[in-house]
Amino acid sequence: MTTGTQRRVLVLGGGTAGLLTAHVLAEYADSVTVVERDALPPGPEHRPGVPQAHHLHVVLPGGQRALDELLPGVVQELCALGAFRIGIPRDAVLWSAGSWARRFPTTMHLLSCTRPLLDWVVRERVRKHPRIHLMERTTALALLGDATRVSGVRVSARASGPREPYDLHAALVVDATGRSSAAPKWLAALGPATPLAECVDPGLSYTTVQYKGAPGSDVPFLGVHIQPDRDHPRGAVLLPVEADRWILTAYGMRGHQPPTDQAGVLHFLGGLADPVLHEWARHNEPAAPPRGFRNTANRRYLYERAGAAPSGFLAVGDACCTFNPIYGQGISVAALQAVALRAALSRRQPGRRTTTRTLQRALSTAYRPAWQLATGSDLQYPATTGERPGITVLPQQWYISRVLARANGNRLIGDALRDVLGLTAPPARLFSPKVAAAVLFAPAPQPLGTLPLHAER
Fold first, then answer.
1. What is the 3-state secondary structure (H, E, C) of the chain?
2. How far is 77 from 99, CA to CA, in rounded Å?
3. Which of 224, 228, 271 is nearest to 246 (CA)?
């Protein structure tokens, strides 16, 4: 991308990833147009183009830091509107690796809120920028250009039904259309370049139910997560959100998918490794019918590879790399990518062109740790499809299994693991000398078989 007169950017998709990217690019372009197929609601409401909006969303610590760097004070604003900052592990209870985790003092906070609230707050911030224009109810149909350069997008307005397509030209087109991105097909139509795709699919499915009632003194925690393992292929997570609601998501790997009716969900919860969520759900009132979701594979397109995409094209967010949603990484990675994009643009040298391939490499660097975490976790399940690591990776997998087995009761290991999972430290943090010594030589902690109702000091 270069700066100069009449430098127009088109961002396809008005979700959080597209809006944050538009916010960054508006500092370097003459105008940024966000092309969105939905009519954007005036408040924190659901819209058809975000099918996951009814499900649980969290922002990890690394994502919160990135959001505040891009939009100062936005995390505080979300909390003022009812979002929860949940201290981990003190405020929540976690079952993993066959035992309950001790509730040590907090070392990280999750931000828990509904997706409509998050999108609305970000959208209201971004749309105030004088160089950003939101083009609603407009569908992108194809990319313009050729095999060497993308020069725009063919669109169709849907103000009162489909209309005659027309072309929008731009110096840069950004795909932020999410999991359903048609960019690989569009790029193939321009020329022979085809991005290399990688997919790791655990076959996970999940069902979400919203329940009435705000957290109170009768519940000694602000969250519950029962993670699956080889012996227990079912999991579930419960967190509070704004407007006096709880969101419970039940999930299972291939062959253990949860039903999408209330009675079926309760029966599914009865098969978890611990009955706490089954008992909780039995005594609380649903606020809406259950909703299921099945498109959960980890998939990335290596657009940063030479010849994978023409110049003038970028992919961000889920259109670039999408994760098994149960790890809660998507929003955080989108924010981290926007920060990485701004950093790459700020490093450009006067008079020299910054290529889109350079920018795409920066975006891929931002998502890579989350990709390694998500795919590494999913490949432990036998039913997962996708390329499995070679024999040289087996010692690393053995080491990580020891990390997970000891993190529940060893504070040093647990703190390091949370830093990595929260996207505030690279995976190398788990191999630092002190952590490695604890992983390799410290005795395995005594498992906690009963729910830890009280936090430790």
1. CCCCCCCEEEEECCCHHHHHHHHHHCCCCCEEEEECCCCCCCCCCCCCCCHHHHCCEEECHHHHHHHHHHCCCHHHHHHHCCCEEEEECCCCEEEECCEECCCCCCCEEEEEECHHHHHHHHHHHHCCCCCEEEECCEEEEEEEECCCEEEEEEEEECECECCCCEEEECCEEEECCHHHCCHHHHHHHHCCCCCCEEEEECCCEEEEEEEECCCCCCCCCCCEEECCCCCCCEEEEEEEECCCEEEEEEEECCCCCCCCCHHHHHHHHCCCCCCHHHHHHHCCCECCCCEEECCCCEEEECCCCCCCCCECEEECHHHCEECCHHHCCHHHHHHHHHHHHHHHHHCCCCCCCCCHHHHHHHHHHHHHHHHHHHHHHHCCCCCCECCCCCHHHHHHHHHHHHHHHHHCCCHHHHHHHHHHHCCCCCHHHHHCHHHHHHHHHCCCCCCECCCCCCCCC
2. 36
3. 224
338: nearest Cα among 313, 318, 353, 316 = 316
Write the pLDDT tens digit of every residue in 181-212. Answer: 999 999 999 987 678 899 999 999 999 999 99
Pick from 329, 308, 221, 229: which is nearest to 273 by CA? 229
Q: What is the pLDDT of residues 359-409, one digit of tens each?
A: 999 999 999 999 999 998 888 888 889 887 665 566 887 898 899 889 999
pLDDT in tens, 159-182: 666 678 999 999 999 999 999 999
- Give whole-number Cα distances, 335 to 21, 74, 443, in Å: 8, 12, 39
Question: CA-to-CA distance for 210 and 243, rounded, in angstroms?
Answer: 11
Which residue carries 């009716």 as its tokens?
A: 261
CA pair distance 63, 61, nearest whole angstrom = 5
Tokens of 411: 């504070």
Quote the distance between the C-alpha of residue 87 and its chain's center.
19
Q: Indicate whether this model's pTM tops 0.70.
A: yes
